[in-house]
Amino acid sequence: MGPVDVLVVDDGSTDETAAIVSARAETHSGGRSTLRLMIREHAGKGAAVQAGMLEGHGDYILFADADLATPADQLPLLTFALRDHDIALGSRVHPDGSDRRATQPLHRRLLGRVFHSLSAFWVTGPVPDTQCGFKGFTRAAARDLFSRQEIGGIVFDAEIIFLARKRGYSMAIVPVQWSDKRGSRMRLRPGLALRVVFDLFRIPLIHRGVPRLEVARA
Q: Are 100 and 94 contacting, i.e. CB atoms less than 8 angstroms apart?
């Protein structure tokens, strides 16, 4: 693997994330592989990922949740898939039918199933796991898709997949290891549920005029 540029996007956190990253020697090394920090005002997970993906400049641009629920040793699975696909979607659902989300609390699994059913019907089609926070893109695909992104909240994954299908990008489903990391600060409140449903509903509407790519991947 060649040089790796790691960008940590701090979406207005109130913990020590920014200080920890800044204190790392890699942040100041100036070597072939770098560690950088981007600090933003809080605007939602989708907005934070969008900013980071548009800032990336490697041949492959990948994002992962900061809790490393999917460990970094799974990254080569995405880069390998990107050799002949435009997009690599990490999946906690494996071909043998096993689901790494089985360790989540019951209420999160039930809500996840409802979300997946709505998303598959209206937005994403038959993608087994839209919400895994571990995805990779070629530079061209990342630039195109994330520049079109309109959703700043947690439904952005579904929006990106919708756009990728509409644009005609090739997608690989990549089974990955994943473990539930407790301590999420997202609270499942009625207002959030309504926002999720609203965002899902409007994705096909706000992107109804997006054209298909004229030239397919070689």
A: yes
Bigger pLDDT: 139 vs 26: 139
Helix, strand, coil % over all residues of the chain, rounded to 5: 45, 15, 40
The Cα 141–Cα 97 span in angstroms is 29
Report whether pLDDT(190) > 90. no
Give the DSSP letter of residue 99: B
Say if CB 94 and CB 177 are below 8 A apart.
no
List C-alpha distances in Å: 155 to 18, 84, 119, 130, 202: 25, 27, 9, 9, 11
Q: Where are the alpha helices (DSSP H) in 120-176?
A: 139-148, 156-167
Answer whether 122's CB lies under 8 Å from 198's CB: no
| Strand ordering across the sheet containing 171-175 | 60-64, 134-138, 87-91, 171-175
Look at residue 218 and tell me whether its pLDDT is greater than 90: no
In 4-112 the beta strands, taken as DSSP E runs, fall at: 5-11, 34-40, 60-64, 87-91
Question: What pTM did the predictor assign?
Answer: 0.91
